[in-house]
Amino acid sequence: MRIDKYLKVSRIIKRRTVAQQACDAGRVLIGAKVAKPGDQVKIGDVITVNLGKAPARYEVLALNEHVSKDDAVTLFKQIEDETNAGGHWV
Questions:
Q1: Angle 55-82-49 from CA coordinates, rounded to 5°
Q2: Residue 74 lies in a domain
Q3: Domain membership of residue 44 as a residue range
Q4: pLDDT confidence bin for 19, thresholds 50/70/90
Q5: Number of domain units in the chain
Q6: Is residue 88 part of a domain?
Q7: Among 34, 24, 80, which residue's Cα sits nearest to residue 55?
Q8: 76 pairs with which residues across the strands?
Q9: CATH code of residue 34
């Protein structure tokens, strides 16, 4: 599945155009590589999204084309960074 579509379906980013723009701006990584909107994502990949003050990291758990709003959280697991233990970035 394309990374821009995955970000939208999983509701990590609410609109696909915003996901595409984030990828084009270099704010989305798959592993350590800057993602382009058409890059393929697979189960087990770690996605980093840099849209706020601190980057958010997610592990891909499933690739469903369509999912309800309530079930969107089953597509990924948020990864807590060791430097953010306790909610404070170092």
A1: 15
A2: yes
A3: 3-82
A4: very high
A5: 1
A6: no
A7: 80
A8: 60
A9: 3.10.290.10
The answer to whether residue 47 is domain-embedded is: yes
Percent of the chain at pLDDT > 70 equals 89
**Average pLDDT for 72-86:** 77
Amino acid at 28: V
| CA dist., res. 62 & res. 70, Å (int) | 15
Contact criterion met (CB below 8 Å) for 9 and 66: yes
Neighbouring C-beta atoms of residue 34, cutoff 10 Å = 14
Residue 1 in contact with residue 41, Cβ under 8 Å?
yes
- Burial profile 36-72: b = 16 or more Cβ within 10 angstroms, e = fewer: ebebebeeebebbbeeeeeebbbebeebeeeeeeeee
Q: Rounded to the nearest 5°, which phi and psi values hold at 22? A: -65, -40
In a domain, 72, yes or no: yes
Q: Closest by alpha carbon to 76, among 29, 14, 9, 1?
A: 9
